[in-house]
């Protein structure tokens, strides 16, 4: 059976190969076209034949297995059913295997046909036939020899597995059934494993066709050997025999690798790099074509990413390679750039939800995500992930963790880097909050943000400033006292970063020289910025990294590769494509960006010069011409061309015009011999200096131009003529200047040169000699500068043609050419003589005049010498040097000095003033002055303008004077328009007065320097600009404010400006705004030109309207105001603007005008006084707009309101009611109206409908509903959590204030639960309604029930509230506060006002003679018997007056008031008596205490009390006797003796101090106890009497100071300070004669504070009907009812 199958297979193979050979052997004489078609059919037939052969071979293998199964069937009949089932399954597998083999062969044949088509097409028919024949023979030989092949199967091959193995599927199947394993499952497993092994075969070792043989495994092999595959000996196979199946093996291996080694991309950027790596590894050795790789990309990419590839493939249909490259680029852009990957990772982090303690799975997912990010962060490809190392980046991640893990995570994982100027270090830390930091003086205390607490902190102390460092620099000596010494033992505990902005804000700064450190005052103290090491003792280490920008725009420390080129395909005009190769040029960070991506990159870029004037295109052309043709000749002269326009018309020959102008000039010179002499001398000098030469003859058709000449005089130099070449003279409608480019304005600003000239102490002025003539004209262009002049300068000789060799006056480009050449000459010499020489020429010259200032003489001499030598290299001479320093001028040759200084002996002689740039400079006094020539110009338009314009004042020194002249010109020219018409006479006097005042300007001297020392050395400077406006003018003035090293403030005038307002005049606010704009423009110009940057720029304006405009943020203006406010805000910020009163605004002088003689006496040159105060931190003051509703400049604001109806009533609306009754009425009214609009109502008797004003009384139902609604909203607002909890589960939180009340809800209201459930009392009292004390309703209820109990105490009020069924939480404190503020209670029970006891008056503490200060009072009366009558006695009343010590003091008794008026103790009068004169001459005064203030006369009031007690004791003994006047006087004498004998201090027990200090000692100069003296003679008594008196007086006053005054020190009462009464307070005025309920209400109108500021006396106004009375009372007689603030 096996032999038969083999023969059938061999026959089938021969038939297949034969048919294939036949198909490959067509006729050789056929045409190429038929050959091509036959090749296709032959290939198809060959493929089918091969497929049939493979199918037969597969059938053969299964047929053999069927035979085996039949044998088993015969031998094992008992297993028949099983075997039959296996046979049926095997038949199915056979058919499937046959179909699969046929399909594989067909696919392999199709690929082989495609790959070999080109090769076959090149072979001839003879070769094809020969190869077919050889192939048939080879297959025949193989089939015949296959059965005799030796096999070399050993177990060793299984162990080695080093050489490739050839496996036959049929052999594997047979081996499986020959062994112990007989099940179908084992058979299928072996078949699958063999298929897998077949896919791993090397494509170079596979045979073209498998041998037709079966291999069986020995039944005695072990299981390991069973898994080994039998391996035939391949020695009998040649290489040529194995190659035909190469393509088939490649296909099989490719298909298996692709299907098993790839995964599908999920469109997540963070996974793209891993997927791309696996895709490349799986396909790199398969030699895939571009189309195949595109197919695989579409198959294995995600939905979104595969769409990209499909779209690109559709575009590049004919170019798969380009499609593949573009697809790779697109995928990298969308999924592989660092930004995309970082954004994807951050998005995953952000979308991760916060974890709970039980989310273990989610916690693991977060950990995996963080590990993924950590691994990605380790790759330098994703630098953006470093953001997660910062606290701001890591905080959101930590917040996603459970609370229990956050602190642990921070403790264990908070590793961070600390970077300071001392370096960086990495450490670990924890989070700490709630810390504060305080300065050493304790004045500033700041809250610190959350801190990162770490175990270690950097302790580099080398950058900490010390007092020694500050003392090492002169400008920092003043701050050395504020810097503490460095404590080496002190620990560094806190590092404050930029997240705490306030501690880094600079409050004050002290600058110094350019390279010196500077000091800054922060909130925590002074710091020094710069090299803090003394005299640079240490060498700082600086690490510098150069950052490169890669082609993709990313920065990198690595140097980009320069060895690459960029190829860009460009479409040419002919339609064909050409490749252009451009070398790489790394010029910009966007070099690697596509050309279309560069579009618009710089469209919106802005620079600081955007608003400054720019050059025109003609100006740029001029510069290009100069750069190309400006050069130096062999004699070191600079040669420049004439910059002609392009294109331009040809110039005609205008010799005829020049000759005519020369004849006219000759006639003029013939009439003026002096002018002729000067003119001829100028021309002679022109030829001598070789500035002009005889012109060569003109060739035919050669272009030339003749310049007419004329002479001009300078107004200040009448003896010198200057010949001007008229380049503007037109001939035939054209001139030389018409065809020349005038060039840009290269000149410095005249104002800028003058501003810089005033900076420093040493000033220098210099000039370029004949600047225009210092630059030659290009040889080819000299014929355009031809002119006519007489031979030898003799006007009677012939006319000769000359031409200029240099650039001339009159040519429009000559100034630009000369300035450009001067800059070029200075630039050429800066390498040898320094860049400062070039800077001096470029920055400090105005045309040919140079003005500069220096801090020192040495710097001035050095720079001027080097500049002089540098310019001399270009044959340019610097001369006319002048300086305010004798040393500087003596350094230079006399001929180089200015005129008037060359032969001057710099001693006591007066130095001539130097004039430059229109200013007169007195170099000896270093001041500016004015020289106004006395002119008699006519009183006409022309004459008036001539006088006004003759005063040149570029710095605005006399702006307040000149503005008046310009205003007069405007007034005079209002009606007269003719230039020579005489103005009206009514204003001639005013004009003459102003014109005459100009002569006094010669007496005005303004210091040249801003300050009395160099501005460059000022450590702190401010620019202060003031503005103002009137209806006819606006003005501005600027000052420099500087702080010296000694702390002194200096102020200097900088610039002033005044301008007339236009006609008709705008409104004053608009003019004030224009003045502010003028101030801003002035400040900008000063900052641009001064070359000094002040520390601050401040603006001052006296118009709060304008300040409101500037500070405004929301209101809209009209265009006029808006444009100017925008101009101001464009350059300044609102906090730079401040208000200044008009009297302190110097700009007000510029608008009001000042006469010349008074200008020096104003603040115009000195500035306001507040500028001289120490600079302080400016307080930010916000200025509101002034009456914006009525301001015509503010657009009206239309406001629309939307009404929104709330469904619930908020309790905050209850605060609009002051009583419970009004609130209840209002809510009841609302309920009534609501019921009127609804069908249902709370009362069945409700008959009202619609909105109406109801006159009915509120029903009880409505009042109850209103009360419930009010209390319900009050409870819900303040107890929302408790209310919600009770609605849900009936319990409140333990932390709630209602926990102890056991609350519950009844009818929607919170009520007290408590324990009185079974009490037999009303339910309202048993379970009262809970009311929060914080609500306004509680206050209203307390006031209501308090009034119900008629303002009784707290107990009555609280009981009334409880009886009403209300429970106010914390009600006692609320009731106390309500009662304390109750006016009625104060009126009933309020205490009288008191104040801390005042200090004793000076008269009670001074050592003065007796009765210098007298306090008196009258007391009594007593009835005395005056005479006896028949019926009895006549009695009168007597009163006593008590003097307790020149000044009288008493209360306001009517008798005292009358006595004071009678004595005339008022200002002295002419007709007063001698007594009154005596009193006034001795300064006697009478002071009165306020009424009802007996305590203010405490000293005598106490004496009166003592006197009464003594008298009572005496009269008690004589109560039955009649008291007469004499007896009473005697009693009074005894009382006086007793009172004056009282001890002033406690009696001492010291035996050495027997004297008792009493008032009698002061009166009598005698002690109470007589002192025993020795016996003195009468002479001795007369001699020593005064000593005795003096000793007694000294003894008294010494003890008085030591013993008595100390007893007055303590206050017996009134120890505390109370609130002062204020005007407007409502008080109750005490009246002793009336009951308290009748005391009147009063209003305090004025108060009288004492020396200590406390009020003890007030003036009270009361009203009774129409009667208004005013009382002066002490505060003890008033009761405060309602304070003013209440």
UniProtKB/TrEMBL annotation:
PANTHER family: DOUBLECORTIN DOMAIN-CONTAINING PROTEIN, PHD-TYPE DOMAIN-CONTAINING PROTEIN. GO terms for molecular function: nucleic acid binding. This is DUF5641 domain-containing protein. Residues 32-50 have a biased composition (Low complexity). GO terms for biological process: DNA metabolic process. InterPro entries: DNA/RNA_pol_sf, DUF5641, Retrotrans_Pao, RNaseH-like_sf, RNaseH_sf. It comes from the Eukaryota. Residues 1-50, 214-236 are annotated as: Disordered. Residues 1585-1680 form the DUF5641 domain. Transmembrane segments: none annotated.
């Amino acid at each position: 059976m096996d032999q038969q199958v083999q023969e059938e297979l061999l026959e089938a193979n021969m038939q297949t190969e034969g048919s294939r050979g036949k198909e490959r052997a067509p006729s050789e004489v056929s045409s190429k076209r038929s050959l091509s078609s036959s090749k296709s059919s032959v290939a198809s037939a060959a493929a089918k034949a091969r497929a049939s052969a493979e199918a037969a071979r597969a059938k053969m293998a299964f047929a053999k297995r069927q035979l085996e199964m039949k044998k088993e069937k015969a031998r094992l009949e008992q297993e028949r059913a099983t075997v039959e089932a296996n046979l049926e399954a095997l038949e199915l597998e056979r058919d499937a295997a046959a179909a699969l083999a046929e399909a594989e062969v067909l696919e392999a044949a199709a690929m082989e046909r495609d790959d070999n088509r080109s090769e076959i097409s090149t072979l001839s028919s003879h070769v094809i036939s020969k190869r077919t024949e050889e192939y048939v023979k080879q297959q025949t030989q193989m089939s015949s020899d296959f059965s005799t092949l030796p096999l070399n199967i050993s177990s060793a091959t299984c162990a080695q597995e080093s050489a490739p193995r050839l496996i036959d599927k049929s052999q594997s199947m047979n081996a499986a059934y020959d062994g112990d394993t007989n099940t179908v499952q084992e058979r299928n497993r072996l078949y699958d494993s063999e298929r897998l092994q077949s896919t791993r075969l090397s494509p170079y070792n596979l045979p073209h066709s498998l041998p037709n043989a079966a291999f069986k495994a020995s039944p005695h092999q072990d299981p390991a050997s069973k898994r080994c595959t039998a391996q035939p000996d391949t020695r009998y196979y040649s290489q040529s025999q194995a190659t035909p199946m190469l393509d088939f093996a490649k296909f099989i291996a490719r298909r298996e690798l692709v299907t098993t080694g790839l995964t599908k991309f999920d469109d997540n950027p963070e996974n793209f790099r891993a997927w791309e790596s696996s895709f490349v590894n799986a396909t790199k050795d398969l030699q895939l074509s571009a189309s195949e790789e595109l197919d695989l990309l579409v198959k294995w990419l995600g939905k979104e990413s595969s769409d990209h590839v499909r779209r690109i493939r559709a575009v590049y249909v004919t170019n798969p390679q380009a499609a593949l490259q573009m697809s790779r680029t697109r995928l990298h852009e969308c999924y592989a750039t660092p930004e995309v990957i970082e954004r994807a990772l951050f998005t995953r982090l952000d979308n991760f939800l916060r974890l709970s303690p039980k989310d273990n799975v989610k916690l693991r997912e977060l950990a995996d995500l963080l590990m993924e990010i950590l691994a990605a962060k380790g790759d330098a490809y994703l630098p953006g992930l470093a953001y997660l190392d910062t606290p701001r980046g890591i905080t959101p991640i930590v917040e996603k963790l459970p609370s229990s893990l956050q602190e642990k995570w921070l403790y264990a994982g908070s590793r961070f880097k600390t970077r300071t100027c001392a370096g960086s270090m990495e450490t670990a830390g924890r989070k700490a909050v709630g810390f504060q930091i305080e300065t050493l003086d304790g004045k500033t205390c700041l809250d610190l943000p959350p801190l990162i607490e770490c175990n270690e902190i950097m302790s580099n102390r080398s950058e900490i400033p010390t007092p020694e460092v500050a003392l090492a620099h002169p400008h920092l000596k003043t701050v050395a006292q504020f810097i503490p010494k460095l404590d080496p033992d002190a620990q560094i505990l806190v590092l404050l970063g930029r997240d705490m902005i306030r501690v880094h804000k600079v409050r004050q700064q002290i600058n110094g020289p350019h390279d010196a450190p500077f000091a800054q005052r922060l909130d925590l103290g002074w710091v020094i910025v710069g090299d803090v090491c003394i005299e640079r003792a240490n060498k700082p280490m600086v690490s510098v990294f150069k950052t490169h920008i890669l082609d993709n725009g990313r920065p990198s420390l690595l140097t980009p590769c320069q060895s690459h080129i960029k190829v860009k395909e460009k479409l040419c005009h002919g339609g064909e494509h050409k490749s252009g190769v451009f070398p790489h040029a790394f010029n910009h960070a966007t070099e690697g960006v596509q050309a279309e991506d560069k579009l618009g990159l710089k469209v919106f870029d802005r620079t600081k010069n955007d608003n400054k004037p720019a050059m025109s295109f003609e100006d740029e052309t001029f510069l290009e011409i100069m750069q190309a043709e400006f050069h130096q000749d062999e004699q070191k002269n600079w040669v420049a061309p004439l910059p002609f326009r392009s294109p331009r018309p040809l110039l005609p020959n205008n010799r005829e015009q020049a000759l005519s102008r020369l004849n006219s000039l000759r006639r003029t010179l013939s009439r003026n011999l002096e002018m002729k002499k000067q003119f001829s001398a100028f021309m002679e000098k022109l030829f001598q200096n070789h500035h002009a030469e005889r012109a060569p003859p003109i060739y035919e058709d050669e272009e030339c131009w003749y310049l007419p000449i004329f002479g001009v005089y300078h107004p200040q130099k009448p003896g010198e003529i200057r010949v001007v070449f008229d380049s503007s003279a037109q001939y035939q409608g054209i001139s030389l200047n018409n065809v020349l480019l005038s060039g840009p304005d290269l000149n410095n600003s005249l104002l800028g040169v003058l501003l810089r000239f005033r900076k420093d102490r040493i000033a220098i002025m210099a000039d370029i000699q004949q600047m225009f003539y210092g630059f030659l004209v290009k040889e080819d262009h000299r014929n355009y500068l031809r002119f006519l002049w007489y031979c030898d300068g003799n006007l009677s000789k012939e006319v000769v043609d000359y031409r200029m060799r240099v650039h001339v006056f009159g040519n429009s480009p000559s100034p630009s050419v000369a300035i450009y050449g001067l800059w070029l000459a200075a630039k050429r010499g800066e390498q040898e003589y320094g860049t400062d020489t070039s800077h001096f020429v470029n920055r400090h010259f105005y045309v040919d005049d140079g003005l500069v200032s220096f801090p020192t003489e040495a710097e001035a001499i050095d720079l001027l010498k080097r500049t002089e030598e540098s310019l001399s290299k270009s044959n340019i001479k610097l001369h006319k040097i002048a300086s305010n320093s004798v040393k500087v001028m003596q350094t230079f040759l006399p001929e180089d000095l200015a005129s008037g200084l060359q032969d001057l002996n710099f001693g006591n002689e007066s130095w001539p003033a130097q004039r430059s740039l229109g200013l007169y400079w007195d170099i000896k006094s270093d001041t500016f002055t004015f020289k106004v020539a006395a002119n008699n110009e006519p009183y006409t338009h022309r004459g008036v303008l001539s006088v006004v314009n003759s005063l040149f004042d570029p710095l605005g020194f006399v702006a307040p004077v000149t503005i008046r002249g310009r205003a007069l010109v405007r007034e005079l020219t209002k009606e007269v328009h003719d230039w020579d018409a005489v103005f009206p006479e009514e204003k001639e006097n005013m004009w003459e007065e102003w014109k005459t005042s100009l002569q006094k300007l010669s007496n005005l001297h303004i210091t040249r320097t801003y300050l009395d020392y160099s501005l460059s050395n000022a450590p702190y400077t401010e620019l202060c600009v003031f503005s103002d406006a009137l209806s006819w003018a606006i003005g501005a003035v600027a000052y420099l404010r500087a702080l010296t090293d000694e702390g002194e403030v200096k102020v200097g005038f900088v610039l002033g400006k005044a301008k007339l307002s236009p006609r008709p005049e705008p409104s004053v606010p608009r003019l004030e705004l224009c003045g502010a704009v003028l101030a801003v423009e002035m400040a900008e110009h000063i900052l641009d030109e001064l070359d000094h940057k002040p520390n601050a720029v401040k603006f001052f304006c006296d118009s709060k309207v304008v300040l409101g405009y500037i500070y405004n943020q929301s209101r809209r203006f009209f265009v006029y105001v808006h444009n100017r406010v925008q101009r101001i805000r464009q350059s300044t910020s609102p906090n730079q603007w401040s208000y200044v009163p008009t009297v302190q605004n110097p700009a007000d002088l510029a608008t009001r005008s000042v006469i010349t003689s008074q200008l020096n006496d104003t603040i115009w040159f000195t500035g306001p006084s507040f500028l001289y105060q120490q600079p302080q931190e400016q307080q930010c003051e916000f200025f509101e707009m002034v009456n914006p509703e009525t301001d015509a400049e503010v657009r009206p604001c239309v406001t629309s309101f939307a009404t929104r109806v709330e469904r619930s009533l908020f309790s905050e609306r209850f605060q609009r009611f002051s009583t419970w009754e009004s609130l209840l009425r209002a809510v009841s009214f609302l309920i009534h109206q609501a019921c009127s609009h609804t069908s249902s109502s709370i009362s069945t008797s409700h008959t009202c409908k619609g909105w109406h004003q109801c006159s009915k009384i509120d029903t009880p139902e409505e009042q109850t509903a209103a009360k419930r609604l009010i209390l319900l909203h009050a409870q819900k607002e303040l107890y929302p959590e408790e209310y919600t909890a009770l609605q849900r589960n009936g319990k409140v939180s333990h932390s709630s204030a209602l926990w102890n009340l056991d609350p519950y809800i009844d009818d929607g209201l919170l009520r007290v639960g408590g324990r009185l459930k079974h009490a037999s009392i009303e339910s309202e009292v048993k379970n009262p309604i809970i009311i929060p004390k914080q609500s306004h309703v509680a206050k209203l209820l307390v006031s209501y029930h308090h009034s119900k109990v008629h303002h009784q105490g707290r107990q009555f009020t609280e009981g009334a509230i409880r009886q009403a069924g209300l429970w106010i939480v914390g009600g006692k404190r609320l009731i106390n506060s309500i009662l304390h503020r109750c006016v009625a209670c104060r009126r009933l029970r309020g205490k009288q006002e008191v104040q801390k006891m005042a200090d004793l008056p000076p008269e009670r503490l001074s050592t003065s003679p007796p009765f210098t200060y007298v306090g008196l009072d009258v007391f009594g009366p007593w009835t005395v018997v005056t005479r006896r009558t028949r019926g009895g006695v006549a009695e009168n009343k007597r009163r006593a007056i008590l003097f307790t010590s020149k000044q009288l003091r008493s209360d306001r008794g009517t008798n005292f008031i009358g006595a004071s008026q009678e004595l005339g103790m008022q200002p002295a009068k002419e007709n007063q008596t001698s007594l009154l004169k005596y009193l006034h001459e001795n300064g006697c005064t009478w002071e009165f205490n306020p009424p009802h203030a007996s305590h203010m006369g405490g000293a005598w009031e106490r004496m009166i009390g003592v006197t009464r007690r003594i008298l009572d004791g005496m009269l008690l003994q004589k109560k039955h006797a009649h008291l007469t006047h004499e007896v009473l006087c005697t009693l009074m004498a005894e009382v006086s003796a007793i009172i004056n004998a009282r001890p002033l201090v406690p009696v001492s027990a010291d035996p050495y101090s027997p004297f008792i200090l009493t008032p009698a000692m002061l009166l009598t100069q005698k002690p109470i106890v007589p002192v025993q003296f020795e016996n003195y003679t009468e002479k001795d008594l007369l001699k020593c009497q005064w000593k005795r008196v003096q000793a007694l007086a000294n003894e008294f006053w010494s003890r008085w100071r030591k013993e008595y005054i100390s007893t007055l020190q303590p206050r017996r009462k009134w120890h505390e300070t109370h609130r002062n009464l204020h005007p407007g307070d409502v008080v109750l005025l005490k009246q002793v004669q009336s009951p308290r309920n009748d005391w009147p209400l009063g209003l305090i109108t004025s108060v009288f504070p004492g020396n200590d500021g406390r009020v003890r006396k007030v003036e009270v106004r009361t009203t009774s009907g129409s009667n208004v009375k005013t009382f002066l009372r002490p505060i003890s007689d008033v009761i405060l009812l309602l304070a003013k603030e209440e």
